[in-house]
Amino acid sequence: MALSKEISINTHILLRIYRVRGRMRRPDAYAYALARVYAKRSYMLKAEDFENMARAISYQQALRYLASTSYGPYIASAEEVMDVDRGLAQSYNDLFEELTRLVSGKAKAYIELSKYKHELEVLKAILRAKFSNVPKTEALRLIVPVGRYGPEVCEKLIGARDTSTAIFMVQDEELKGRLHVALKGAEELKSPYPLELAVDRYAYGLLGKAVEELKGLDRDWVRRLLGEEVDLKNFMVCLRLKSMGVKDYKNYLLPYKFRFTVEMASKAMSAPTLSEALTVVKDLWGEVPKATSLTEVEAHLLRRLAKVNAAIFLHYGFHVGILQALLNLKFFEVRNLKALLIGKSEGLPAEDIMSRLILH
Q: In the chain, how many domains are there?
């Protein structure tokens, strides 16, 4: 009787799958999609993989270890750093292509925007490097190319005469206009942060609108994931602007808040110390381990965000949120690998390398 009831419940869940172009996805298609997603999740690296690479005696040994994992087909023949970058980027792109084949319509459009947001993280890194006059070779060594911002495009933008010229080369016209406006604020503050926030406000504005186009389980799960991410970023916006002496923070907050309210933002901005600012969000994210810098706080919150994305796989069901979570985890993984390999090339101790990674 209990088994019969369980089967009935699972069948009911299967029939609640989102509609694609007005037609319900068949249970066999649902089962295939869910199996593919969990298979891809199982191929991702584990914490011990990163530990083994961090403790490798050399960069080359770490690279050989990586070649023995699911990244083998992408970096086995890599000889130069740019070859490794291309391999990591291709691994991300291949996952994205497979995920988009599992959905269509508005669900597919949302996943495409999720990828665009990751690509814009690359643009942020480029603009930060250009504005800060980081040498071209060093900037390219630190940037993780993804999607339309592949190695060649990154090299072209980093090679631009100045930040304004790099902005002019951005293909997205609306974003380009916003960046030209933000450049004035960056020059006034002598910081690239207004440029980074202009990119974030644009990206999360697009995603926020796309969320509301979804329905049912898709919208519920995606709201939770995106909202948690925006809340975290808005808290960090407050902390960073406060450290820069900027009082008019409201114009910089990202759209689509979830649990981090305007009142919380005000309290964080008025807190006299970092530790007191952290108490504002204690009920949202728990205790933050003793931190002496904003970088440490951000790293802790990003690790929490990675855990939120990983935890979605503990819940049964197929929805756009699980695809978004997988793509987010892949993006974390690629960036972790880049940071690890940079650490190995610099001869850093394993403990220092591991402390830089956003693991979950």
A: 3
